[in-house]
């Protein structure tokens, strides 16, 4: 059982709880997730099965989109609604929609973001949230992230509805907290729903109930995205019959090994990832261009 389940994670459970539930339902040994969601958050959670767990470095690095509510008026120690207020609530004189939009634009682009103290970031091998719960003093270093968009959808003080598109590793809780700092009124994340991870959208997500209903029937295979479709944005190349063994052994693939290609190598970007198929359409590997651009080097081979 190899492939990906796009799960609509419910509120009130951890991402690891979802992994354990899927493992029990499917009787699968190798199950993982790519990009954890906080227990109170909902939405797209990528669950990998079998060989798909090896795709973690590629799936977890995908950009993500979110929608949710931010509450203005006071900050919390966890940066979300589960935490304790760290300031007295401000109920009057809250910023206007125009002021909020200006503050949100100031958090777009490539920024340095400090993760929440109550997060899974490691310090000396221990998660920060454990240190925070033990009332230990520590400092988390800022991380460089990219916020492609942080957009106001509706303003009904003290709540504002937003949409955010950002790089992997971005904490939406920190965005909410930092917005409150910019506006001078304090703020925290009230609710959050992840709507996409890379090409995988909420519209294609299934619930845990859907998986449970499909177990034991042929329909479960309809819910699992096969390995060759996990990274649809990666261009596909087809090998000549003689080059299949090279790919299986991890040997470099030159232009003459590709069906219909010969002569000068194509203009491969060093950062481009390719999906490699045999002549029958069977998925064999993920490959990257070599540093000299003359060949493709398999970086993940499918067994």
Provide a descriptive summary of the structure in words.
By secondary structure, this protein is of the alpha+beta class. Helices cover 20% and strands 30% of the residues. It contains 8 helices and 15 strands. It has helices at residues 15-26, 56-59, 97-105, 128-133, 172-183, 208-214, 220-223, 244-249, and strands spanning 3-9, 31-34, 42-49, 64-72, 109-113, 122-123, 126-127, 143-156, 159-166, 187-197, 200-201, 236-238, 274-277, 283-289, 296-301. The strands form 3 sheets. Strands 1, 2, 3, 4, 5, 8, 9, 10 and 11 form a 9-stranded mixed sheet that branches. It is globular and about 75 Å long.
Task: Tell me the layout of helices and strands.
Elements: E1 3-9, H1 15-26, E2 31-34, E3 42-49, H2 56-59, E4 64-72, H3 97-105, E5 109-113, E6 122-123, E7 126-127, H4 128-133, E8 143-156, E9 159-166, H5 172-183, E10 187-197, E11 200-201, H6 208-214, H7 220-223, E12 236-238, H8 244-249, E13 274-277, E14 283-289, E15 296-301
Parallel strand pairs: 3-10, 12-13
Antiparallel strand pairs: 1-3, 2-3, 4-9, 4-10, 5-8, 6-7, 8-9, 10-11, 13-14, 14-15
């Amino acid at each position: 059982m190899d492939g990906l389940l796009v799960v609509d994670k419910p509120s009130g459970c951890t991402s690891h709880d979802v992994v354990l539930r899927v493992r029990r339902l499917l009787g699968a040994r190798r199950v993982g997730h790519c990009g954890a969601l906080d227990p109170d958050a909902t939405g797209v959670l990528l669950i990998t099965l079998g060989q798909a767990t090896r795709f973690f470095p590629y799936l977890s690095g995908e950009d993500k989109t979110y929608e949710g509510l931010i509450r203005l008026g006071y900050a919390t120690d966890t940066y979300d609604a589960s935490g304790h207020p760290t300031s007295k609530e401000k109920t009057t004189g809250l910023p206007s929609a125009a002021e909020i939009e200006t503050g949100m634009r100031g958090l777009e682009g490539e920024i340095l973001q400090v993760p929440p103290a109550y997060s899974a970031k490691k310090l000396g091998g221990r998660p920060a949230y454990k240190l925070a719960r033990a009332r230990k003093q520590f400092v988390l270093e800022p991380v460089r992230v990219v916020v492609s968009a942080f957009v106001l959808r509706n303003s009904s003080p003290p709540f504002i509805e937003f949409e955010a598109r950002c790089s992997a590793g971005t904490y939406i809780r920190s965005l909410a907290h930092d917005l409150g700092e910019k506006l001078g009124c304090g703020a925290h994340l009230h609710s959050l729903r992840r709507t996409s991870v890379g090409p995988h959208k909420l519209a294609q997500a299934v619930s845990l109930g859907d998986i449970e209903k499909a177990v034991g029937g042929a329909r479960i295979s309809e819910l699992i995205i096969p390995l060759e479709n996990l990274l649809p944005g990666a261009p596909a190349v087809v090998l000549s019959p003689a080059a299949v063994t090279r790919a299986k052994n991890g040997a470099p693939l030159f232009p003459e090994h590709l069906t219909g290609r010969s002569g000068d190598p194509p203009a491969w970007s060093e950062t481009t990832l390719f999906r490699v198929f045999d002549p029958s359409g069977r998925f064999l590997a993920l490959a990257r261009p070599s540093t000299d651009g003359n060949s493709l080097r398999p970086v993940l081979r499918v067994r």
